[in-house]
Amino acid sequence: MRTPGRGSEQAGRRPALVVQTDTAHENPRYPNTIVVTVSSQGRAVPSHVQLMATSDSGLKVDSFAKCEQVMTISKERLEGRIGVVSQGELERVFRALVLVCGP
Hints:
Layout: E1 16-18, H1 22-25, E2 32-39, E3 48-51, E4 63-74, H2 87-101
Antiparallel strand pairs: 1-2, 2-4, 3-4
């Protein structure tokens, strides 16, 4: 994903984690998708979920899904899939999203 970033937003070319349902994300008639930013820098806060660098994830270094930085972006900004996170990591991301967005 590419983003110019403003303030404390993530900027530059970086991984992003699609958090939208597969059905909605793969719908060719809907041009946008929902992501959270991923960064190699994180903090010990409930909204930062550690993602491990594995052959499945495609991440080069252990990283963090920053669940307070939810974005709706054009699918055209996505450069391709690098991997998938584990089921446990995905569940932690969704729990963090509930903390950030509310139940």
